[in-house]
Amino acid sequence: MSTTTYRNGTVPKGALKVDRPLSMNSTSTKSSASFKSKTSGHTPATGPRRKSTGSVGNSAASTKDDTSVLGRVRVAVRLRPRNAEEMAADADFGDCVELQPELKRLKLRRNNWDSDTYEFDEVLTEFASQKRVYEVVAKPVVESVLDGYNGTIMAYGQTGTGKTYTLGRLGEEDTADRGIMVRAMEDILAEITPEKDSVSVSYFQLYMESIQDLLDPANDNISIVEDPKTGDVSLPGATTVDIRDQKSFLELLRVGEAHRFAANTKLNTESSRSHAMLMVHVERSVKGRDSAISSENGSTSHTAKSFKPPVVRKIKLVVVDLAGSERIDKSGSEAHTLEEAKSINLSLSALGKCINALAENSAHVPVRDSKLTRLLRDSFGGTARTSLVITIGPSPRHRGETASTIMFGQRAMKVENMLKIKEEFDYKSLSRRLEIQLDKQIAEHERQQKGFKDEIERIAQEAQIRIAEAEKGYAEALESERLQYQKDYIDAMSKLEEQWAANKQKHENEKAKSSMLSASMEVAELKKKFENETISRKAAEEEIDNLKNQLAQWKRSEAAGNSEILKLRKMLEDEECQKAKLEEEITVLQSQLLQISFEADETRRNLDREDTVKLPGTLDSPIPPFMLQHLGDSGAGEKASMANLFEQVGLQKILSLLESEDADVQIHAVKVVANLAAEEANQERIVKAGGLKSLLTLLRSSNDETIHRVAAGAIANLAMNETNQELIMSHGGISLLSGTASKAEDPQTLRMVAGAIANLCGNEKLQPKLRGEGGVKALLGMVKCRHPDVLSQVARGIANFAKCESRAYTQGSKTGKSLLIEDGTLPWIVQNANNEASPIRRHIELALCHLAQHEVNAKDMIKGGALWELVRISRDCSRDDIRTLAYRTLTSSPSFQAELKRLRIDYG
């Protein structure tokens, strides 16, 4: 039975993939075929065995315009060498095909004395290099893409014949193995100008009639959009990535291949279960094709001539890695893999029908029968230059599939496309140029404005100088006028003095007369002052009356205040009575709490006498020992009591008892909180009410080991939630748990602490902080206890930590050596890999497999003796998934294979 999986191995159910290159020793030859966009050639004759002597560019001479030419689909056939299975099974039989590459001819044997002959554009033997395949199949299409024509490169054939090897090989170990995708992008990036041109890539797969983004797996239902005017097909919902260099493109291909669906079948260890399509969009500026902008009167103005919209060519290259056609009885597909095979065969059948209709010039081409044919409508009978490579195998057992593949290629050679160059004005570039010119005009205007301001300032300065000169002249005139007035004043004063002397004599004579008049005026003034004093006295008397009234009001206010004080005293006495009642209620609650705690202890002791219980689930998520009290029927009464206490007393009052000075009250309160925390429905309420902080505070402040044990169990229950894990870490929970473990002597306390740390080890975001605060070292320290329950929790924590590290390696967020190996856990892991206790052994086996999945840990694992344990696990482990994972790890690691080879152990 085969199982579908991603290529990155996230579902390790299938067998290991073994890449077998078609050829490693052949010498590549340079392709003589070159593309000319406006050349003419002969149109190939119809018939199942026609001969084509022209290159891709040498198609029919009739053209629609200067950018439209006829281009026949060019087909090459590539033979895969025999693999190890075929060498053993077909050792007594000859190949079913015979190649004549110099004649571009292939013979398919019917029997030992009869064969059919077919001719193709290129015939590639099993010794043809990847470079040779690229030059004869893909390079002419790439050159036409750079000249402005859309292009398609597609691989078709039976599953396991080397389609993905031909197209998508990255060549990380040997650059000579690079496939068509990598080599095509190298040529495109080498020809474009980064300042003017752009290259972007989309990578997606067609899986069971659903288009899924390989660069963003969450985007799994992309819609096909067709332009109603031109009929062009696009996928606006697919992720598009701009490509600047070859390194970023290789990384993009790695990400895409990791998300592609694959399965293990009888015909291929890792058979592609989807059609993968790499869509490359290229925009190139065309020199000498700019169009002038005419002015309103029909002539081209001098300004308009400098702003011509440049012409750009928008080209699309599609590289299609079709899923392999297969027969169900040979592939052994069943269940979900059978449904995948049906979907693949239906889409390939729809493609074959479209090609048959095009080859026979049928009036109706059923392109809408499948999403695959809709996506490829431009590649067959459209405007793209298409090159098809069909891959076949030599085995006579698959002669029927080989014949079907050859006939598919023969029919495809009859299809002709009308190649067109898509050009349009680059108004965006023109807009940028106009913006630059506008910025220059604004700068010129600002410069002129500054000159204008400078001129105004100069004129203002000249005006100031003239004003100063006028003010100076005015001051001089004013001074001369002042001197004249001063002279006139002196003359007038002398005249007045003379008159004053004359008048003085006259005044003395009149003085006697005025003395009598002044006495009468003084008496009148005294009368007026007396009247004013009388008015002031009356005002003072009125003020005294007002003060007396205010004093009376203050006395009344004082009496009202005294009555209010009496009311407050009475309220205080009522509060004291209420306080006494509350103290009595607390006493009752404490007694209830003691009773519930006693019942919980009785239930736990009953459950501890039973065997360890483990619910069905994955190996790395067993139910921890401190959750066992919730599994039996004996816990029903305790839950009911807890629920009653929870509803009647309230969580806040229970948590307040954790701060009691009475040690017994504290112990019983923390037991109740621990039992409440075992219920997932209560955990969020406990955390919101501050229960987590109170439990951590108890670990820090209390010296009672019973409190430590129960509090650690409650924290372990809360640590089952990812949000609570982050809160525990942020409040220093690991340091407190590590300190508790170092001081504890009771195995049950150590079991609770180890369980809490094991739960935190399952959160990959917290791993660096957990290790930095001593979480891993605390786990290793607890193995000294040697109690099976403690060792089981330690093993579970190490397995969770190793699994998260393995996921980080796969996602690319971690590259260095494992933190577990750096902290010295490997000797203990190897020592307990074959522990008699089943829970301990299974956790350790899983941890070893996760550590061994990444090459950076291989050297330390070989040195520490882990290799022998991996070999044992791959052969003797009772769990199928762990055994398969160990086998896959051993066969995929170069270091492990080299060591086994050095020890002369045949494994793989």
TrEMBL record:
Residues 1-67 are annotated as: Disordered. Gene3D superfamilies: Kinesin motor domain, Leucine-rich Repeat Variant. One of its GO terms (molecular function) is microtubule binding. One of its GO terms (cellular component) is mitotic spindle. ATP binds at residues 157-164. Residues 72-415 form the Kinesin motor domain. The keyword Cytoplasm applies. SMART domains: ARM, KISc. The keyword Membrane does not apply. ARM repeats lie at residues 649-691, 690-733. Keywords: ATP-binding, Coiled coil, Cytoplasm, Cytoskeleton, Microtubule, Motor protein, Nucleotide-binding, Repeat. It comes from the Eukaryota. Interacts (via C-terminus) with NEK5. Belongs to the TRAFAC class myosin-kinesin ATPase superfamily. Kinesin family. Ungrouped subfamily. This is Protein ARMADILLO REPEAT KINESIN1. It comes from Anisodus acutangulus.
